[in-house]
Structures are given as C-alpha cells and as structure tokens.
C-alpha cells in the first residue's frame, strides 16, 4: 500500500465536519497542510433543517475566534404545549439563547471560515468507497483516490463511514417533515420557539420556529417522529399530522414546499470509533428526544478535533479511547441524558413527565439557560431541585408573567 498523502480526511462539510477541522487546526496549525474536508455537494447546499441553533454552539465556535455572520432570528425563550396545558419561559435576564439560521447560508459561511483559516474544504467531491488497512485508509472519491492516516465520518444521517465502521441498523431513527409558511395571527412573539406536544399517542412533536428566508420573516413548521426501537417508519403519516396542524392555523399544507428527511439518535451502545476512524455529529447520532443536532455536531467536533490532532502527533491511531473521552465530556453526557430521557418521556410514564413540566415550568427556564450556554441561575436550580423532590405530579399553573406565562 502507498504511504498516506493526508494525515486527516474529514468526510462531510456540515457543522460536525467543519467544526472538527476548525478545532483540530486550532490545536495544531501545522495539520492544515495535511488535512482536507470533502463535501459531496457544491456550496451553498441545502440541508433540510429548521435551523434552530443553540447559543452554546455559537459560544464554542467563538472560543476559537469563529463567528458565523448570517441572517438570523434571535430567540430568548421556548414555549411548550402539552395535553393538559401550556406555558412559555424566557431567560429571566432576557439574554439570547440561540438563533434560527438557514442551513444553506450557515454551512456555507462556516466552510468559508474554515477556508479563511487555511483549511482545504473541497466541495462537490463525493466519497464513494472506503477501505481500511494497517497502514491507513484509502478513499475512492468522485475526484480520484486519497489515502489518509485517519478518517472522520461527519457525513450525516446516512453515513458511509459509519457503514464501513459498524454496519447495522440504528437503534433510534426519526423521520421529519418541515415547511416554511407565512406567519399567522395566533403565532407567538418571534423570540419564542414553540414545541407542540399535545397528542399523547404521537411519539414526537410539532414545532413553529420563526425564520427568515431571503429577507422575508416566515415560520418554519414541522413534525418530528421518533421511531421507537422495533417500530416502523410507515406507522405514522407525518404529512397528515402536519397538515391537520397547519389547517388549525388556517394554512394549507398542499400549498407548501415539503422537505422530508431522516435523523439518527445517539445510542451509547453503538460504536463511534474504531482503528483510524472516528464518527462525529449525526453520523454518530444526535438527540433522539427532540432531534436537535446542530449544536451536538459542533460540540462533538470541538471535542474530537483537538483529540485527533494530539493522536496524529503521537501516532496513536487506535482511537479505542475516544468513547471514554466522549462519555466524560459535556456533549457525551448530554447525549446519554437525552438518550435516557427519550426512553422515559416516550414510555408509559409520559403523562407524569408532562405533569411534572406543568407543575415545575422553571425546569424549562433552566433548559433554556443550558441550551443557550448561559450561566445557570443557581437559586433557580435549587428551587427546581427542591420542587422536583417535593412535587406530587399535581398540575399547577406557572406564575412569573415577566419571563413566562401560560398559553391562552
Ligand atoms: C427537518 C429537520 C429539521 C431539523 N431541525 C433542527 C433544528 O432546528 N436544530 C437542530 O439543532 N437540529 C435540527 N435538525 C438536525 C440537524 O439538521 C442535524 O442533526 C445536523 O445537520 C447534523 O450535522 P452533521 O454535520 O452531523 O451532518 P449534516 O449536516 O447532515 O452534514 C453532513 C454532510 O456530509 C455530506 N456527505 C454525506 N455523504 C457524503 C459523502 N459520501 N461524501 C462527501 N460528503 C458527504 C452531506 O452532503 C452533508 O453536507 C433537523 C433535522 C431535520 C431533518
């Protein structure tokens, strides 16, 4: 076999791949000469996604001097509608918790940031085949053959790299359908993201996220359906469900451009690393309970990039240690907690979790602060902790109208 011509090849130029490259290059600037990101689509490329970007991901990027300046709708809070009631919560100090971006713009701008830092990002190059051997990894691509010492699979939900690493069906799969519509009178203020979780038989939720498309203030609305292990994709007619919700809002799904896509949830029991190969972002799996994946992808890259740079320097390319590193890191803990919550929330005790949320709406205030990467209010944390210990799952209306309230 020929000697590798690259130290690191990253397959996939979405948030996971680009942030892995950016953070790796930040740790070891020399690596830029021997690293390439391969993206099969030419930028700007579409990715079906509501574009709800958590502030904690922007903060992680900012920690290495990367700011992604694209049209955004800023959020300060979240709203939840449950079968027995609904409420919204903002950060009590009115801080921004995230923004809605258009992926076609965000990913392109992030790729340009990587290029501006001297990272080779080759778009329009598709990886077709992967073969590992003791001396490296060979990639056949639409633009020729590459050989690398190490490979990152950041190639999203249908990851080719994952299939090479660990063929098999994912435990958590989800299907998602979204549309962009005009705003309607009953929409909430545009700084709130709304989660509609009103049907106890639906394993998923519907959402309304204010967005901006070519300068027009629109609302991205969609339906997320988690297929519990053992269930089938065709068990749920997502278009009918979204159609009914749009009709309630006076909108017609038939007049909207529908975007349908799959998602893969993280499971701690599925491999994320093997000799010379590491998976990041949705290739490894994202949040199964909500399908949130942009921040997970960026934070996963922020962890994997420097770790890989160090391994490439020492030549220790087994990568067996990465799952333990991931498990201890914030993003890995986040993954495991959400994996556990998905089982619990969508299980037989669902009604208790819903009632607990209604009884202690400040759980969402804390969630909002965590989501935004903001300092968490310690007094609030203590109050919520105490309430969780005390509460008997009795629904109670939330108070504090300044930063939250109930839905009419
Ligand atoms: C409808 C929908 C709405 C969503 N809304 C949100 C939201 O509001 N907030 C949120 O946080 N998450 C959301 N998500 C999830 C989020 O979009 C993903 O989790 C996120 O994009 C994962 O990032 P990634 O970089 O891992 O993968 P991707 O963004 O999918 O990037 C993978 C890249 O790899 C490229 N690629 C694939 N195969 C190859 C190959 N063989 N060769 C070269 N390149 C290849 C692809 O073209 C793609 O650009 C949503 C998902 C869906 C489907």
List keywords for this structure.
alpha+beta, 11 helices, FAD/NAD(P)-binding domain, binds flavin-adenine dinucleotide, 27% strand, 32% helix, 3 domains, eight-stranded mixed β-sheet
- Any guess at the CATH architecture of the largest domain? 3-Layer(bba) Sandwich
CATH topology of the largest domain: FAD/NAD(P)-binding domain
Helix content: 25-40%
Low-pLDDT segments: 393-402
Oligomer: single chain
Quick gist of this model?
The chain has eleven helices and 19 strands. With 408 residues, the protein is α+β, with helices and mostly antiparallel strands.
Written account of the structure:
α1 (15-27) packs parallel to α3, α2 (55-62) runs parallel beside α6 (294-314) and α7 crosses α8. The protein is α+β, with helices and mostly antiparallel strands. It has helices at 15-27, 55-62, 103-116, 160-165, 238-248, 294-314, 322-328, 330-345, 350-359, 362-372, 378-390, and strands at residues 6-11, 35-39, 52-54, 73-75, 77-82, 85-90, 98-100, 120-123, 127-133, 136-141, 144-153, 172-181, 192-196, 204-213, 216-227, 259-265, 273-274, 277-279, 404-406. The strands form three sheets. Strands 1, 2, 8, 9, 10, 11, 17 and 18 form an eight-stranded mixed sheet that branches. Strands 16-12-15-14-13-5-6-19 form an eight-stranded mixed sheet, sandwiched between helices. The protein has a three-stranded antiparallel sheet with strand order 3-7-4. β14 (204-213) and β15 form a beta hairpin. It has three domains: 6-51 and 102-166 and 271-342, 3-Layer(bba) Sandwich (FAD/NAD(P)-binding domain), CATH 3.50.50; 172-265; 349-406, no CATH class. The radius of gyration is 21 Å and the shape is globular. It has eleven helices and 19 strands. Flavin-adenine dinucleotide binds at residues 11-17, 38-41, 47-52, 126-127, 154-156, 160, 176, 178, 222, 261, 263, 281-283, 286, 291-295, 297.
């Amino acid at each position: 076999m020929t000697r590798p011509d690259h130290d690191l090849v990253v397959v996939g130029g979405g948030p996971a791949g680009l942030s892995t490259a950016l953070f790796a290059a930040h740790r070891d600037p020399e690596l830029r000469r021997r690293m390439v990101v391969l993206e099969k689509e030419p930028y700007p490329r579409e990715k079906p996604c509501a574009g709800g970007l958590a502030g904690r991901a922007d903060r992680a990027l900012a920690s290495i001097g990367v700011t992604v300046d694209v049209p955004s709708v800023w959020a300060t809070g979240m709203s939840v509608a449950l079968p027995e009631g609904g409420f919204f919560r903002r950060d009590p100090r009115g801080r921004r918790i995230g923004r809605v971006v258009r992926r076609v713009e965000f990913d392109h701008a992030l790729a340009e940031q990587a290029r501006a830092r001297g990272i080779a990002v080759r778009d329009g190059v598709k990886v077709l085949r992967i073969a590992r051997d003791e001396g490296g990894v060979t990639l056949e691509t639409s633009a020729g053959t590459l050989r690398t010492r190490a490979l990152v699979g950041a190639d999203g939900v249908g990851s080719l790299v994952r299939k090479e690493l660990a063929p098999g069906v994912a435990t958590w799969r989800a299907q998602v359908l979204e549309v962009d519509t005009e705003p309607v009178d009953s929409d909430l203020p545009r700084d709130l993201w709304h989660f509609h979780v009103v049907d106890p038989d639906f394993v998923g939720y519907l959402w309304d996220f204010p967005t901006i498309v070519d300068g027009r203030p629109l609302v991205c609305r969609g339906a997320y359906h988690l297929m519990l292990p053992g269930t089938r994709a065709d068990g749920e007619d997502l278009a009918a469900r979204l159609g009914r919700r749009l009709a309630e809002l006076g909108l017609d799904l038939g007049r909207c451009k529908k975007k349908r896509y799959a998602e893969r949830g993280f499971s701690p029991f599925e491999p994320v690393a093997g000799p010379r190969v590491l998976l990041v972002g949705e290739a490894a799996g994202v949040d199964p309970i909500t399908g949130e994946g942009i921040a997970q992808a960026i934070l996963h890259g922020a962890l994997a990039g420097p770790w890989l740079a160090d391994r490439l320097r020492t030549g220790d390319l087994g990568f067996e240690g990465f799952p333990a590193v991931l498990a201890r890191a914030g993003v890995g803990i986040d993954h495991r907690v959400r994996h556990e919550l998905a089982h619990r929330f969508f299980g037989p005790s669902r009604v208790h979790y819903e009632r607990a949320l209604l009884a202690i709406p400040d759980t969402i205030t804390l969630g909002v602060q965590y989501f935004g990467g903001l300092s968490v209010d310690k007094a609030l944390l203590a109050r919520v902790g105490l309430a969780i210990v005390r509460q008997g799952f009795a629904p109670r209306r939330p108070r504090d109208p300044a930063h939250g309230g109930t839905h009419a």
